[in-house]
């Protein structure tokens, strides 16, 4: 069955622009750089946890099996990056700029992306429970097959955001418009979406029954 509402067009994504000749790098290379820049690099198995690194720049980089759990990246600028099987649990990317980045099979439980600016970003098969996107700007962002339980999307600005087969249980969309979005393939037992956020959102018939109660409607079976 098709969802009810305005059908949302699929998000047109621009993938990360990675050159073929990436250089092997270690996290110490970034720390040693005076401007905290890492460019055209690939890194595997790095562990940089419970640290603080402000205003770092990551461009045309690839990370595999790295852990940045509980690390504070204040105002990070990350462009053209691929992260596979990485752990950013409880990392802080507050006010970060994240552009043309693909997160695949990553753990982002409790990650703080409040007031961040995300563009052309894909989260594929990621664990993102309890993540914080408060007042973030998301443009051309795709969440695919990811767990978003208890995620806080309060006050976000969405444009061409796609949620496909995600777990949205207990997700909070207060003060965020879902106009043009499609959540019909997503699952949840409870979700916090105010009435004013729903116009223009595509939902499944089953979801529509639940939302009808918000409008004071009685569904007759």
From TrEMBL:
Tree of life domain:
Bacteria
Q: Which species does the entry assign this protein to?
A: Fontibacillus panacisegetis
Q: Where is the chain membrane-spanning?
A: none
Q: What is this protein called?
A: Uncharacterized protein YjbI, contains pentapeptide repeats
By its UniProt entry, which InterPro entries does this protein fall under? Answer: 5peptide_repeat, PA_immunity-related
One Pfam family for this entry, by name? Pentapeptide_4
């Amino acid at each position: 069955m098709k969802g009810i509402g305005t059908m949302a067009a699929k998000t047109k994504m621009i993938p990360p622009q990675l050159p073929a000749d990436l250089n092997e790098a270690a996290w110490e290379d970034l720390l040693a750089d005076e401007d905290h820049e890492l460019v055209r690099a690939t890194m595997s198995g790095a562990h940089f946890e419970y640290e603080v690194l402000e205003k770092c720049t990551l461009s045309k980089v690839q990370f595999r099996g790295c852990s940045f759990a509980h690390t504070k990246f204040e105002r990070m600028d990350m462009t053209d990056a691929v992260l596979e099987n990485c752990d950013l649990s409880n990392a802080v990317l507050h006010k970060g700029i994240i552009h043309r980045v693909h997160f695949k099979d990553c753990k982002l439980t409790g990650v703080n992306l409040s007031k961040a600016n995300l563009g052309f970003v894909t989260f594929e098969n990621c664990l993102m429970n309890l993540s914080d996107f408060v007042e973030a700007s998301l443009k051309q962002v795709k969440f695919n097959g990811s767990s978003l339980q208890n995620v806080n999307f309060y006050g976000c600005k969405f444009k061409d955001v796609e949620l496909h087969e995600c777990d949205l249980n207990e997700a909070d969309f207060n003060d965020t418009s879902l106009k043009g979005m499609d959540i019909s393939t997503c699952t949840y037992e409870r979700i916090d979406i105010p009435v004013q956020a729903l116009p223009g959102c595509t939902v499944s018939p089953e979801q529509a029954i639940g939302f009808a109660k918000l409008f004071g409607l009685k569904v007759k079976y």
